[in-house]
Amino acid sequence: MKKEPEQAEVNIGLIGHVDHGKTSITHALSGKWTDTHSEELKRGISIRLGYADAVFYKCPTCKGAEAYTTKETCPSCGKKAKKLRKVSFVDAPGHETLMTTMLSGAALMHGAILVIAANEFCPQPRTKEHLMALKLSGIKNIIVAQNKIDLVDKKKAMENYNQIENFLKEFDYTTEIIPTAAHFGTNMDLLIEAIEKHIPSPKVDSKDAVKMYVARSFDINKPGSKPKELVGGVLGGTIIQGKIKEGDTLELSPGINNQKTKIKATELNIAEGKIKEATPGGLISIRTLLDPNLTKNDQMKGNIIGKIGTLAEATAEIKMKINYFKREITDINPEVRQDETIVLSVGTATTIGNIISIKKDELEVALKVPITVEKNQNVAVSKKDGTRWRLIAYGTIQ
After folding, report:
1. CA distance 298 to 294
2. Where are the alpha helices (DSSP H) in 210-366?
């Protein structure tokens, strides 16, 4: 009997400024190149969230970092290594125009590798904003990969190292800084050792009512398929709590036409194939009976899947208490005005809002696209700075 594929047990984000090497580190650790979209290949940057799984092993004989590997057989001594766990990497885009995509990714992460290039001053603009996004998402477990170490001399590397340390202190993070050269696979063993030390797998309580953030949605039918060959739309994302079994009937919110929609999980999949039950950790896909025309091109991104009767209703108007980031961190005046247009990111959902009321630190916002939020949930707030959207605050739903 064929063994069922194993689901990853933790999601680790790769974050940082554009072209600092996030995708290269993901490739060095997993063997997968996550930039597969045609526009990504052409432009050389990540546009969508990328996903890749890896299994970590530890040699029982070798000492120190060289004991850690992604191979079943130890590269150092040739002995069989002991399996530690399967992890899933979420590769977030670093380009300034794609911050909302990065914020969607942060909602799926349990920990993160902050990638900082040794040949550039630290911090770069997106380095700041990505670390702010982590704090906003409540992610405390991070490590730093000081990448492209092969491009600088020792003096420059130490200057950059000190810049990184001071930057982390500014955001109240204390962690290891690992020098890496991703293109050569340099110090990946040290990076794995640090991940195992600092980014634990989340504790799972299968009794919790299931909640899953939808980060992708697809139509997997091939053009020209006959009616009897068609299958329902597919929803992809990460389970935050609880579990989903094949055949479960669940609820989608905001749903179709902003009405809660019942769905049936006719099939569950991870990258390696079908599974019968899914729990938090890694990216999963759910095949449903939804019209695939409704799920194509990520149209269902931002929805939440949950047990029937447990999800909040979608809303087109929210009230929130706003907490501005320090001006020296954002580089712009973060304060917003009445009638100003802002972008809100919550979970994997992103929507445009217009501020209709400001009373001290409380905002009332009318949303262009309704979202599903809960009381006390944090919302990322971005405002326009020239032609760009900049992360300037977080709001707490009232």
Report:
1. 9
2. 292-295, 327-330
Query: Which residues fall within 8 angstroms of residue 335, CB to CB, at 6 or more apart?
Result: 324
Enter the DSSP assignment of 381: E
What's the pLDDT tens digit per position in 259-312? 999 999 999 999 889 999 999 988 899 999 999 999 999 999 999 999 999 999
Cα separation, 20 vs 22, whole angstroms: 6
Bridge-based pairing state of the strands 177-179 and 142-147 = parallel
Domains, the chain: 11-198 (3.40.50.300), 211-306 (2.40.30.10), 314-397 (2.40.30.10)
- Residue 15 one-letter amino acid: I
The length of the chain in residues reads 398
Cα atoms in the Cβ-side hemisphere of radius 13 Å centred on 375: 1
pLDDT tens-digit series, residues 330-374: 677 888 999 999 999 888 898 999 999 999 899 999 999 999 999
CA of residue 255 relative to chain centroid, distance: 22
Q: Is residue 260 classed as helix, strand or coil in its secondary structure?
A: strand
